What we know:
Layout: H1 2-19, E1 23-32, E2 35-42, E3 45-52, E4 57-61, E5 65-78, E6 81-94, E7 103-118, E8 124-145, E9 154-169, E10 174-185, E11 188-196, E12 199-210, E13 214-232, E14 240-254, H2 258-282
Amino acid sequence: MKSIFTLSALALASLMSVNAQAVSWSLSGESVTGTRLGVASLNDVGDAAFGPIDSDLAEVIPTTSVYMAGFDGFTAVQGGNSIDVAMSHSAVAESSYLGDTSTAYLELLTSASLDNAFIVDANVALDAAATAPVRYLSQSFTLMADAGESVGMQALVTIGLYADHEEESTPGIMASAFSSYQVFLNGNLLDADSFTGFGSVNGEFQFDALIGDTITLQAVNESAFSASGLMLNPGDAPHALVDGEFRASLQVAAVPEPEAYALMLAGLGLVGLAVRRKQNTAR
């Protein structure tokens, strides 16, 4: 009976070694490029805002998190007429999600708006355009070995992708939104896609990697609107709100080495053999 307990413990330990394997993420190589742009005029009198977003990289905690955000806005004024334009964007990358170190994530948000119109004159011509980009964020995620793992061991990576574009605008104002991504493994392109228009899309794909490999995600998210020669009269309240969102989650699981499976199967086989021998002896 004691030998059966011993063999059972060995089999259980081998099974736990198969399931206990884990891999985590480390961040590196973040970069962002793009330009905020907004213009608006009433009867050819107005204002504009323009600026690169590179300097919006607000906070980087090495290997752990990246955060950036930016906002710009202005009021176009002509006589007693006025209207506001605003653009905002943010990006977040984390090496863990809600404490789960096996899952990293990235999120991009953009918004462009035209609002707070105050029109007192007749036949006021509105020309306006705005673009709120994160164009683009490049972020690298490196597979790190946890306890029981080592560089070069196999891992399975699952990437989940989600994009959502929403808009609400006055007739005569054109809205647009765009998201895209490219995924690289050690510099080699694995997958790429884009989404234009409004609504939401999602997807998922998997691939094999090795602990120590680097996965780079390059993502774009852009929200924009434009209006040309839109005629306004007292009391008119033209508006536009365009929101874009792109998210990606990167989940990794270690793939047990063949030796681990062999050890588990051998242990279970020995337990079965010992049980059968005990049954035969009892007969």
